[in-house]
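Hey,
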Amino acid sequence: MAELDQIVQIFITRETAQIDTASFDIPAVLATFTNFSERTRTYTSITGVADDFPSTSNVYKMASALFGQTLKPTSIVVGRRQVDGVAGSVATVANSTAYTVTINGTIFTFTSDVDATAIEIVAGLKAAYDLAPISGITFVDNLDGTFDVSVVTPGTAWSIVASTNLTLVNDAPTETWTEALEAVEDSNSVWYALTCESHVKADILELAAAIQARRKIYGTSTQDTDVPTAALTDVATALSDANYDRTFIVYLPTADADYPECAWVGSQLPEVPGSNTWNFKSVSGPTVSSLTDTQRVNLRSKNCNMYTRVAGVEIFQDGVVSSSEFIDVIIFIDWVYARLQEAIFFRLINSKKIPYTRVGATIIENEIRTVLTQGVTNGGIAPNPAFTVEAPDPLAISPTLRAQRTMGDFLFNFRLAGAVHKVVVRGVAGV
């Protein structure tokens, strides 16, 4: 074989370098908790979430809504907002019962005696902790049946959970929602749709402003009774006035308990971008609103979606972001942007070179055509004619750009396929 290599020499260059591609089917849940120390965790089922969060927690409720749909995400990302300490107390005083606190994965347990008191239980937990204290974390017995656990250095990643007979209350978060969002992105940015446990107006507006600068979307909801009225100081009005086109909001009287935005995201995000409209969709979980015609008009004037019953069917209406654009349009345009960027970059890194000639321009043009053709297949781009693509004449590009090896502009045009949301029928009946 060695002699054959000398006679016939073969050199094969691989042009198969892979690049990361943007995902449009993964939602994120942002919340304040201490259940795990990592900034994010990825879950593929509600069972996994249940291993880390009790069913009464906001994270569990949101994840349950996301995973509880017929068509559901294959995975979700749960992101943590930093808390530097918790206040603990004994929820239930019981004799001969184990009480457990788990800090950074280390379990500390005390079993009460036959005449238990809260003071005794906390003292026992403190003694157990002192036998093997964790560096950087303090455990303080307040000598009144309560205790405090906190990190020495603010911002330290840590975790603490307790058995159900103990109660832990988070201290005030030490970072804003925007700072938490940035930290979550640094840890895991594959997700596309953001949801958050807070429905407080100020928090919603903060995250809406933050997401507007990103190529992602943010879904939220509110049960503020001012929203379906003519009031002009509510959160839906503020979002609409800001013309945010990456945030959508749903009005539901039970929003804080049901998280309807999560059910909606869970049912629609797994769809291929361009193939669906978010209007008229039924989900599992939320309780429908009973709205008057006036309330519907008010909600629509604020570009606020609703979950109602129409002709006996429970559906979301109207599938819009706060700027009045349709949610599916925002997602599809983001898909086109990402796939064009990825396709052209893939070709650049997997070619010996793309010449600055008409041949090179055609290579890039073909990448654009391939993506737009897929857009037609997805249902986002209208066919007949589907689209046009125009490549620049390299000789017509300025010498400065040619010297910089920058080729442009490539121009394309397409018509969105859209979706039917309203039907008008006119007929004449004769004799």
